[in-house]
Amino acid sequence: MTSPTASTLLVVREIGADEHRAFVRRQRSVSFLQTPAWGAVKAEWRHESLGWFRGDELVGAGLVLYRQLPKVKRYLAYLPEGPAVDWEAEDLTAWLKPLAAHLRNRGAFGVRMGPPVVTRRWDAATVKAGIADSAVNRLGDLAPTERSHGGARVVAQLRDLGWRPMAVEGGFAAGQPQFVFQVPLAGRTEEQVLAGMNQLWRRNIKKAAKEGVEVTSYDGEAMLPELQTFHDLYVHTAERDHFTPRPSAYFHTMVEALGAEEPDRIRLYTARHEGTLVAATIAIRVGAHAWYAYGASSTEKREVRGSNAVQWQMIRDAIAASADVYDLRGITDTLADDDPHLGLIQFKVGTGGEAVEYVGEWDLPLNRALYAAFDLYMKKRG
């Protein structure tokens, strides 16, 4: 993805799924939420693949999900963790202005997007020290290990262009996570990644192997018979950890849609001890970016450390696939010892990776009255 010059004009228009997939294959990293298959997963939304063209050359792409305003044929256009354009461009106007014009013509009253642009990073040692410090309540209280000037430039440009940062709160407004935890893999061997984990993680991986935990992965049609087994454990996990589980049909749709797009796009992992399922996960990979998407674990037999075993196998497979990063997805930015999510952060910190902050989700109102009505509607729902 290269930046346009003053003498070139970018045009945004709808593209077919095949053209969109071909573009994604040429990129090192594109969110799985920006693949054509994700439109099929979100069947309750109308979806469209968009392309940015410089002449006949496709130089950017994105998946748009359209949510209709109640009783009115006007839509919020949503590009989760996208679009895949040149976010390093000196002037984002050339990329975002034709996007807004196209979506307005499609009946959108507003646009929401989540640029895949990093602003700050904190290594595992920094996060661990923050958790241990009673004076630290949030990641933002800690000096970052790395601060991205490019991320700061994107934030400044979005504000100048009239985009509004979304508050992180419940319901639709929560969107995709602004903070995630990732394990860098580029140029690292299994031994190096394992050595970077904390002592507890290494001990638990070793214990799982000693206890005879068997990890198996499935792809293609082989996943389908195991999906209900995964879902049963996932529902059990939801009841224990107090979150609302997705229905079984959602996972069947996701596995079928993503699996049909690329043979190695999605995999299901199970960890069993003496025949008993103790952990199960779903992993997704697009190019060199691998994600831990969903996980479940049994309350029984936790001492055999099935969750560590299955995570380690997913990391090993990501390394074998030459992935640059293993992404454990969302974390909260809160580090207070009374925060109910602290245990999840501590589990992820043990991998030796880093907390990563993205620029977050941003809105561009195209029709201020309808946008305000939608915003009020969503707040009442939430």
TrEMBL record:
SUPFAM superfamilies: Acyl-CoA N-acyltransferases (Nat). Keywords: Acyltransferase, Cell shape, Cell wall biogenesis/degradation, Peptidoglycan synthesis, Transferase. Pfam families: FemAB. Gene3D superfamilies: 3.40.630.30. It comes from the Bacteria. InterPro entries: Acyl_CoA_acyltransferase, FEMABX, PG_Glycine_Bridge_Synth. The keyword Aminoacyl-tRNA synthetase does not apply. Belongs to the FemABX family. This is Peptidoglycan bridge formation peptidyltransferase VanK-Sc. It comes from Nocardioides endophyticus.
